[in-house]
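During the no-cost extension, the postdoctoral fellow (Dr. R.K.) reprocessed legacy sequence entries with the updated structure-token encoder. One reprocessed record is reproduced below for audit purposes.
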Amino acid sequence: MDITELDLNLLIVFDALLRTHSVSAAARQLGTSQPATSFALNRLRKSFDDPLFIRTPRGIHPTPYAESLAVPLANVLETIRSDILHRSSFDPKTAQRSITLNMHDVGELVFLTPILKRIMSVAPGIEIRTVNREIAEIEPALRAGEVDLVIGHFPELHGATLFQQRLFSHSFVSIVRKGHPIAGHEMTRRQFLDGDHGIVHATGQTRDVLSAELEAQGLTRRIVLSIQHYLAVPMILAESDLIFTVPYAIGEQLAKLGEIKLLNPPFKEKRRVVKQYWHTRFHQDPANKWMRGVVAELFVQSNKRPRPVKRQS
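Re-encoded structure tokens follow.
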């Protein structure tokens, strides 16, 4: 196709249809009528010699060819908007907006306090919101701008449309109540195996992230309690002799909430890497660049530069 034969205004309609999966929703977003948007879609079909979208009970669904164009199209339009038509600025001192961070409740315990402290001191008009989306929902939410950054250990999160930056890696620590029968700050293999354990697992899972790794080393815990939220741990430990094994940063934070002792566990574990992720559409967005700069300044432990996430085969 010769670019001179294509009405470039149609690409804006194409992008809106890809994001909304609805002719009427795309029309509302573009401030035009539904018939005009349908007419534009017919012109797009002729230009690309492809149906582009198929009607389904849940709206219009892009064809494989249309899906293959989604990322390059979004990148081209974002470049035109940000670099050619308007280069927006962002002043944290005067900005009035919200920034949405996707993280587990683990992340809320570790990240929120230092982030909030920094934001309140340098950007008083910024509101921080947190969400915890299912892994399949994260990339679409980043692409749509519903989530600005993802922070945490998300090994399943990958794709050519995302950037990542390594913040730090963490190990694990076992925690018990102060006064627990295990003395000192070391736990033997026998004490670990003989103890009663509690675990914190993600919603929809029945095991925590460490179970399979421990079993591979011949360490099978006697689990008597499984819960979904870390904030319940201090109260549970205060009234029991249970042992929880958690990421070290979480153990430190929980120790501030109760009479909790940290113990070095008797096993070797693979260190988990914590990263921040963002979408290529917002790589040059001033507010997004500023926010991920704040996160990097607070938590990065090396000078590794951000790089695109490699697609896993």
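The chain has eleven helices and 13 strands. The first strand starts at residue 53 and ends at 56. The remaining legacy entries will be reprocessed before the final report is submitted.
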